[in-house]
User: What shape does this take?
Amino acid sequence: MEAKIIIDLAGVVGAVGAIITTIITARRASSKADRYDAKNSILMMITEDHQQVMEGKLPTNYQNVLHEYDIYHENGGNSYISEKVESYKTWFKEIQAKK
Assistant: This one.
């Protein structure tokens, strides 16, 4: 009887381990997807704002870029987008000063 209990306990521990591994893997995949989505949104909005200025309009995505940037960094973003956002912030402030 004791051997059966040990085997059942080992099965439970194995199942719990598999569940934990699945949860961790899913969270990592979700984090990567969130980072990828934020990166693409940032680049698209920066491009859109530059296009608007070339058309004689004011940029409109500043707050949205900063919001997506926060999401990007919360999910392990790197310096490539940081450089783009810093450059965008400087550019945006120059545009605002001219208006």
In short: The chain is about 85% helix and 0% strand.
